[in-house]
């Protein structure tokens, strides 16, 4: 009897990264329950880092597996589906009562549907774009808002909690939408880059270190907004190309009609002269 891949063993390093991401997501839930909201938000950012590492390590070391893909998806559901929703609900969205937990549920359901759709379509999707907002980006978008408020000790007012609830709903809808986002998977870490690229990385790290919560949250807010912009521009381009194609076809038909008319004119003149 042929042994399954589980019986033969699993790849340690990429699954270790996935476990670290799962641990960070679980810690974010515990931190939120205990009122440590800033720590919980930071833990979700850390989970995003480990989640990005596991896939890249698996591809670079040629250690991808079906088990790793399924484990990663389940860990993502905890770290980026449940943890952000529970964190924001404990932080202040619960003040809206039923509407508060419904907003949290919309986000969680959106993350589950996003992950399920990605698993089904993974082999057929373009590597350049994601279909819908990626769940890690959605998670840090909503958790980053809590981090900004907590880090700067801003007052917990209705407006801040309302924005948090709005981010939950917006992120949940964007995850299941057909809006396209740059994936960054085409970036090859093995190829050579200009020396100035290293200087750019240093400058980015300096900017982030000056104000980590606001800088990181602002980056992912811009990323979330970039999807609709990219999609609208692509739709406009497609409409323009279709209009140009229809115009070319119309011109070709008009030209063919003129040529047919020109070819028939001498024959008509000859018949009229004979008559």
Automatic annotation (TrEMBL):
The chain crosses the membrane at residues 12-30, 99-117, 129-148, 160-181, 193-210, 216-232. Belongs to the CDP-alcohol phosphatidyltransferase class-I family. This is CDP-diacylglycerol--serine O-phosphatidyltransferase. It catalyses: a CDP-1,2-diacyl-sn-glycerol + L-serine = a 1,2-diacyl-sn-glycero-3-phospho-L-serine + CMP + H(+). The keyword Transit peptide does not apply. Residues 255-264 have a biased composition (Low complexity). Residues 252-275 are annotated as: Disordered. It is an enzyme of class 2 (transferase). GO terms for cellular component: endomembrane system; membrane. GO terms for molecular function: CDP-diacylglycerol-serine O-phosphatidyltransferase activity. Keywords: Lipid biosynthesis, Lipid metabolism, Membrane, Phospholipid biosynthesis, Phospholipid metabolism, Transferase, Transmembrane, Transmembrane helix. It is a multi-pass membrane protein. Pfam families: CDP-OH_P_transf. Its main location: membrane. Its EC number is 2.7.8.8. It is found in: Endomembrane system. One of its GO terms (biological process) is phospholipid biosynthetic process.
